[in-house]
Design goal:
- It is built from twelve helices and 16 strands.
- It has 348 residues and is α+β, with helices and mostly antiparallel strands.
- The chain has one domain.
- Strand 13 (299-303) and strand 14 (308-310) form a beta hairpin.
- Helix 1 crosses helix 12 (278-292), helix 6 (114-127) packs antiparallel against helix 12 (278-292) and helix 8 (211-221) crosses helix 10 (238-250).
- The longest helix is centred in the last third of the chain and has 15 residues, at 278-292.
- The protein is globular, with a radius of gyration of 21 Å.
Length: 348
C-alpha cells in the first residue's frame, strides 16, 4: 500500500463556494459544479468506447472495419462514437481515392490529446503493472533514446509536484449547472477500458475514468479531505460518495485516517500514488484549457520552484523536448495481431 502524504495544491485566494440555485420551473435546488478543464477533458475520454477508439487511432487505425476488429465493438456503437468524435472535432472524415470507404483521421485537436495519454500511461506504468513489464516502451525519435516522459513546468522544465504549485481563479472561474444525471449514475464497468491490446492508460482510467471518482480525487487536490466537505462541494448522493471513496481507498489512491471517535469519522488523504495523479490531471487541464475553455481557463497555476505561471508540458526525460505523437515509436511486449489490432510494429 502506498504511504499517505498530507499535501495539496495551495491556493492564492479562496475558491468559489458550492452553489445550489433554484432550477427554473422546478421546486428543488439545481446542483452546480466547478468550471473545470480537466472535467471537460474527461467528458471526452471517460467514455470507454470513445477512449479505446482514440487510443487505436494513435496506433494508426483509421478505418471502420479496423476499429471494429481491434476492439470487438458492435457496429451501432462504433458508428455512434465515431460520429460523436467527429462532431467534437477529434476526428475528421477523409475520402479514400478510388473507393467509397472513408477514413477517420485525428485532427490537430485529437493529436493534442497524446501528451495526456502519455501522462496517464506513465502513471499506469509506475503503479498498475503488478510487477510485470509495461506493455510498451517509448522511443523518442528526436533524440533516439528510450523515453520515460514526465509532466513538467512549461517555464523552467522541472518535474511538477502538487506541493510546489499554487492556484488562483482564472478568467473562466465560476460554476455552471451540473449535467443531468451525473449525481445519481453508478460507476461504469471499468474493465471495458481494458478491451483490446494491453494498455497502462486503460489501467489508469479504470481508477479515475469514472467522472465521480475523478471529482472526488480533484477535491483532495483542492484540500477537501473529509466526507462532509466533499459531499457539500459536489452535492453528491451519500451512497455514491461512500462507494467512490471505498473504491479509491481499495485502489491505493487514498488512505483513511481517523480524526474523531464516537462516532468514528475519517479523513481521506492522498497517498504517494494518489499524489502522482497530479501530472495526468494538469496535462488534461492543459488540453481542456486549449480546446474547450474558449480562451478563459478556470484556473491559473504558479510554479513555486521558479515563481512563474505555467502550463503542463509532457517532455522527454532525455532531451527535454515536448512529446508529440509523430516523434514516437514503440517497443512492444505483445503482438498486436493477437488482439486483432493494427501496429505499431515493434522496433528492435
Amino acid at each position: 500500500m502506498p504511504r499517505s502524504a498530507n499535501a495539496k495544491i495551495q491556493r492564492e485566494r479562496p475558491a468559489a463556494r458550492p452553489v445550489l440555485s433554484k432550477a427554473r420551473g422546478a421546486g428543488k435546488a439545481a446542483r452546480t459544479e466547478r468550471n473545470c478543464s480537466v472535467a471537460r477533458t474527461l467528458d471526452v475520454v471517460s467514455d470507454a468506447w470513445a477512449f479505446l477508439i482514440i487510443r487505436e487511432a494513435f496506433f494508426g487505425t483509421q478505418t471502420f472495419e479496423a476499429f471494429r476488429a481491434a476492439l470487438g465493438i458492435p457496429r451501432a456503437t462504433l458508428t455512434d462514437r465515431l460520429r460523436k468524435l467527429t462532431r467534437l472535432s477529434i476526428f475528421r472524415q477523409v475520402a479514400t481515392p478510388g473507393s467509397q470507404r472513408r477514413e477517420y483521421r485525428l485532427t490537430k485537436m485529437g493529436f493534442d490529446l497524446y501528451p495526456s495519454f502519455i501522462a496517464l500511461m506513465q502513471f499506469g506504468d509506475r503503479w498498475l503493472t503488478a510487477g510485470k513489464a509495461p506493455p510498451l516502451t517509448l522511443v523518442h525519435m528526436t533524440c533516439g533514446c528510450e523515453s520515460h516522459p514526465y509532466v513538467a513546468c512549461s517555464s523552467c522544465g522541472e518535474k511538477l509536484n502538487a506541493r510546489d504549485v499554487k492556484y488562483r481563479d482564472g478568467p473562466g472561474a465560476g460554476r455552471r449547472p451540473a449535467k443531468a444525471g451525473r449525481n445519481t449514475r453508478r460507476a461504469s464497468d471499468g474493465s471495458r477500458f481494458s478491451l483490446g491490446r494491453p494498455s497502462s492508460v486503460s489501467r489508469a482510467l479504470e481508477i479515475i475514468g469514472d467522472k465521480w471518482s475523478f471529482m472526488v480525487v480533484r477535491e483532495a487536490f483542492f484540500g477537501n479531505r473529509r466526507y462532509d466537505k466533499i459531499q457539500s462541494e459536489l452535492a453528491i448522493a451519500p451512497n455514491i460518495l461512500t462507494d467512490r471513496l471505498s473504491r479509491l481507498v481499495a485502489s491505493g489512491v487514498f488512505h483513511r485516517r481517523l480524526y474523531q471517535n464516537a462516532p468514528d469519522r475519517y479523513e481521506y488523504l492522498l497517498t504517494d500514488m494518489g499524489l502522482d495523479l497530479y501530472g495526468p490531471f494538469v496535462a488534461m487541464l492543459r488540453w481542456g484549457d486549449r480546446w474547450l475553455a474558449a480562451n478563459k481557463p478556470p484556473l491559473a497555476l504558479k510554479h513555486l520552484t521558479c515563481g512563474h505561471d505555467f502550463f503542463a508540458a509532457v517532455i522527454c526525460d532525455h532531451c527535454k523536448k515536448p512529446i508529440i505523437a509523430a516523434d514516437m515509436k514503440y517497443k512492444l511486449t505483445y503482438d498486436p495481431k493477437a488482439f486483432g489490432a493494427l501496429g505499431p510494429r515493434s522496433i528492435s
